[in-house]
Amino acid sequence: MSHQNRVTPVSQLIDTPARGTLMGNRGCLHNARGEIIRSFVGKRWIACLLEFRGRKRALMTPGRYTELFFLDEVTALAAGHRPCAECRRADYNLFRQAWVAAGLPSRGSLPGADEMDAHLHAERLDAAGAKATHPALLADLPAGVFIVLDGNDRPLLFHDGLLWPWTPGGYSTPVSLTPDTPLRLLTPPSIVAVLAAGYVPTVHRSILDAV
């Protein structure tokens, strides 16, 4: 049985039988019947490994955090999640190093989780509480970011110089645009800066098999 716990690049939670390659959480979002009743609790939005040290969990346990799933890491980043500091410690440290290299705020030599989470949370939502988007030009973007075109809400991943339409099961046939095409970023600006500074996220094999 599938659950409404698959995260899209627009940060929506959908029900799909397609499996993800990363797990994560943003607090307890479900009720005792396993129904999603809120979109987040708190500012700590993380992306985790599917397996870690043999730990087992029952999905949607009442009162426990809601297990979320992502197609790949670029999807998790677009939704506003960052690498987990426990199960993905190496990625977490690389993310922090790129954070500093990008010139983002840090009270120490490397930012702490709370510091990054607070900064990212200010970029995740707009004034109405919906997913925030930001204007940009394709020519200014690093690989690994998600965008939408004006008048179209279909998430597109910028990878290998092309735009790949996202689906729950993978990416479909890519399209190309001119560098000066106006668009809107789904990936939060600070994560875009982290990617531009050298952090390399994972992408789903549907792209790797196609290129």
Q: How is the topology of this model organized?
A:
Blueprint: E1 4-7, E2 13-15, E3 22-25, E4 46-48, E5 68-70, H1 73-79, E6 82-83, H2 89-101, H3 113-124, E7 134-137, E8 146-149, E9 156-159, E10 162-167, E11 170-171, E12 182-185, H4 189-196, H5 205-208
Parallel strand pairs: 4-6
Antiparallel strand pairs: 1-2, 3-4, 3-5, 7-12, 8-9, 8-12, 9-10, 10-11
Helix pairs in contact: 2-4
Task: Work out the helix count.
Answer: 5
Oligomer: single chain
The main β sheet shows up as: 6 strands, antiparallel
Structural class, by secondary structure, is: alpha+beta
Helix fraction by DSSP (H/I, runs of at least 4):
10-25%
Instruction: Give the ordered list of helices and strands.
Output: EEEEEHEHHEEEEEEHH
Shape: globular
Spans of at least 5 consecutive residues whose pLDDT stays below 50 are none
**Percent range for β-strand residues:** 15-25%
CA distance, first residue to last residue = 33 Å
The averaged pLDDT comes out at 94
Radius of gyration: 17 Å
Order the strands across the largest sheet as they lie in space.
7-12-8-9-10-11
The strand count comes to 12
Short description:
Helices cover 21% and strands 20% of the residues. It is α+β, with helices and mostly antiparallel strands and 211 residues long.
Description:
The protein is of the alpha+beta class and 211 residues long. It has a domain at 4-92. The protein has five helices and twelve strands. The protein has helices spanning 73-79, 89-101, 113-124, 189-196, 205-208, and strands spanning 4-7, 13-15, 22-25, 46-48, 68-70, 82-83, 134-137, 146-149, 156-159, 162-167, 170-171, 182-185. It has a six-stranded antiparallel sheet with strand order 7-12-8-9-10-11. It has a four-stranded mixed sheet with strand order 5-3-4-6. A two-stranded antiparallel sheet has the order 1-2. Helix 2 crosses helix 4. It is globular and about 50 Å long. The mean pLDDT is 94.
